[in-house]
Amino acid sequence: MRWKVLLPLLAPVLLVCQATDVVLDWNIGYIDFSFGRLFSRKAIGVNGKWPLPAVEVTLGDTLIIHAHNSLDEPTSLHSHGLFQNGTNYYDGAAMVTECSIPPNGTFTYRIPMVQAGTYWIHSHYKAQTSDGLRTALIVRDPNDYYKYDEDVILPMSDWFREPGKHYHQAVIKFVKNKTYRLRLLNIGASFEFHFSIDDHELRIIEVDGVPVKEKPTKGVMLAAGQRVSVLVRSKETADNNYLFHADMFTDLFTMPKYNPLNFTGVLEYAPKASLKREVNGGWKITSDLDLEPLDEEALMDPTVQVTLDAYSGVFDDQSFRHSFNNVTFILPEVPTLLTALSTGDNANKREVYGRQSNTYVLNMGDVVEITLNNHDYYTHPFHLHGHVFQIVEIGALRSGLHRTKLARDAPVKRDTFILRGGHYAVLRFRANNPGAWLFHCHIEYHAIRGLELTFVTAPGLLQNNTHLPEGLKENCIAQGIKASGNAIGRDGMDLEGQPGGPNPLPDKMLSYILQMGDEDGPPPATLDASHSEAAGSTTSTSEGKSPTRTDSTTLDKARETTADDIDSEADSDDDDDNDH
Length: 580
Ligand SMILES: [Cu+2]
Hints:
With 580 residues, the protein is mostly beta strands.
């Protein structure tokens, strides 16, 4: 399925740059997958297999994926975390950067690997990530700053890690006196994982592809979409085995009764060594704000301000929707990139991309400061395509923008970050990448229900420099989708008849906007009790631990939790009333 072809390079160049094409032929189709004795279901696999093998390449390679769609609906492939600078059309966001690949259609993604680190590939069409179309993408740098003996890829997801093999049966083999790099990835659709190893220290060295200064920690929290690399030094003797824990936080959904909350595996030094358990290890989390990027890039000065209010509730069509600034995202009828390429000067007007696309047009070089207010009581992990952003501050909405927790001079950069309910965050990114880039919650069902918007950077540059790859427009035509024009496929600014909603109920829309900045903050968000995301109290335990947590169920409750409670090293054993 995978082979490498050496490019014809001159011998002297070959010594320093072994650039290769890594070619994958992916036939994307349904398979029947059985979860041991628990249940079986239809899943989306590749070449008749699930889970998909990790894609492992070297910095400087070109990753070429020939994707053939054998599903009965469209599909697309997004390489999460890759900037795609100059290749926006390979970003894989259906109806934003391509029309998607129709059933029985093909598309070739040809992506230069210019960023080392831990990434992943997943469908960006409807809920296909939940259905299994996802895998790790590892880009290794032979000159990696950090040195280690072994490299272990540990994807975690709402499903199980290997066919018929649950996490609590998983084994990681360790040899004494070695340094391991564990690449932790949350490639799930919804839930957060907390990862730890009994009686072993983790040292964080990478978050979302960004190398960071080594930071010791007991455990790592990962929301959907996030990746963290840790170094772990093995013991000096092989006398004992230990447990590792991937505790899944299921705050958002009521789970099927068979779904375990705590996955425990064995860190095995020797098959017959006795298991040494850590009593009361607890959950400990290192804040993003305590991390510093290795490149020490300074805090950027913003030139553009964007304030985004995330709100969820029952909208005026009686559906449950998510929104930014009262606008629930609905895909345009023409992919945003194709609108940017085909509408001349109008491409600089946000309206041309359609009301429900909620598009912000940026100039090349703008430094955008996003102030993001989460008025919901639950967490959203927000992801920006094509960039990393500096995390400048995080605080509770209740206290207003009082800079409760400030970033350091060189703040950490990520492409996905956790924003708790009732909290705000300030993010900054440099618009240095011409293209159409989604910004959205990475909980798949929140995104599908509208918690997305689009940044379009430098449409003029795009128009001058973009040569669409073969097959992209053909895949539009094959589906009856217009490949040019405004959001509804017309010339000029004629958008008559475009979707104009659904909208928040009038009282909700007004009340929360009017009270912004009020010392008491916004009113509690209400939630339809019949909705599947109704949260409840969850108590979970695992061997060797005795954590208890009670989830907040109202916005008021969530607001009582400060950013420091959540983001600094806090042991939930000592604090039963937070929403870790
Ligand atoms: Cu969300």
